[in-house]
Amino acid sequence: MSDRITRKLTTILAADAEQFSAAMTADEVGTFTELQAARDVFFKLITHHGGRVANTAGDGLIADFPSVVEAVQCAIEVQQELAARDAALSFRIGVHLGDVICDGPDLIGEGVNLAARLQTMAEPGGVLISQQVYDHVKNKLTIGFEYLGDRRPRNLAEDVAVYRVSLGAPRPSRPAERKRPADPSQSARVWLDPDPFADAPQRDFRAPAGDDMADGDQQQDGFDLKGYKARFRRCEKPSKMIAGAAAGLFLLDIVTGRGIWAHWPILVLVMLFLLREGPRMFDRNAFLSLPLRFWIIGGFLFLVNMFSWSGYFWALWPIGGLFLVSLLRRGIAPQADEPQ
């Protein structure tokens, strides 16, 4: 027995094959060959992105990465390569940044459990990430992310924000019911658990539920008011801080009586708030094919121009420059996202 427990903060990638037991029943040799080919893809890209394989259990895999960005990029490239090969096996992937216990080369702990639970929620061929991962990659990867809402996993006291990495249409799952091998390893036990979100209320954000349609003030013309409120609640604390700061600045402006100046610092605070929390508030990183940051900074420049109006619309030039830069980056991004 060791004298001390070794811990580390790392990015955990959990992957699992869809309908593996059913496929083994139908074609044992062929499915095993497909699993080996898929593992070769995983091992190659995990190594390429600076990660390591911590555990392989049956049809699943756990890897960890020192870099959050590299872990998500690895997950994206794995799914893209498997889709390009039209592999018979589809994999679900979950990625989480958390503190884990090191048991030799193996990893144990809540961080591993949560990554595995995200994996169970993913669609075949899809990738789900936690809030901790999203906060690190949202401005570093050009791919999009979709906020699926807050879910409460089994045996956890707090809700977990879940994001889907936008990879296009998910791969169809096989119709047969999935079963699991009977002799799991230490890390694999978390994958054998029933879906931890099965008992928690869930909502399909792409289509309104029947109860919401019955409630006219919650669902109007396809707009999910409940979903918007859930997203806004995540930004409630910083928005209250901004409102408090704005009220304080206006009060100071009135007390000093030296002209109206409070709108300038308030405008800057609002812009910084939207740059940080905008993607979570509006559930998108782009609007009309242009980055959300373009609209926020453009709106800031427009208001500065209006507040300091001198008969000349000078904001047109920096906004136009931002527009051209956004178009150039949009043209370069697809080439940068191609797997090496």
Automatic annotation (TrEMBL):
Coiled-coil annotated spans: none
Swiss-Prot/TrEMBL GO biological process terms: cAMP biosynthetic process; intracellular signal transduction
Gene3D superfamilies per record: Nucleotide cyclase (3.30.70.1230)
GO molecular function, one term: adenylate cyclase activity
PROSITE patterns in UniProt: GUANYLATE_CYCLASE_2
Assigned keywords, A-Z: Membrane, Transmembrane, Transmembrane helix
Biased composition (Low complexity): 207-222
Record Pfam families: Guanylate_cyc
Lineage: superkingdom: Bacteria
Location of region: Disordered: 171-222
Residue stretches spanning the membrane: 241-274, 286-305, 311-328
Domain Guanylate cyclase positions: 11-119
PANTHER family from the UniProt entry: ADENYLATE CYCLASE, TERMINAL-DIFFERENTIATION SPECIFIC-RELATED, PH-SENSITIVE ADENYLATE CYCLASE RV1264
Name of protein: Adenylate and guanylate cyclase catalytic domain protein
Protein source organism: Tritonibacter horizontis
Lineage, highest ranks first: Bacteria, Pseudomonadati, Pseudomonadota, Alphaproteobacteria, Rhodobacterales
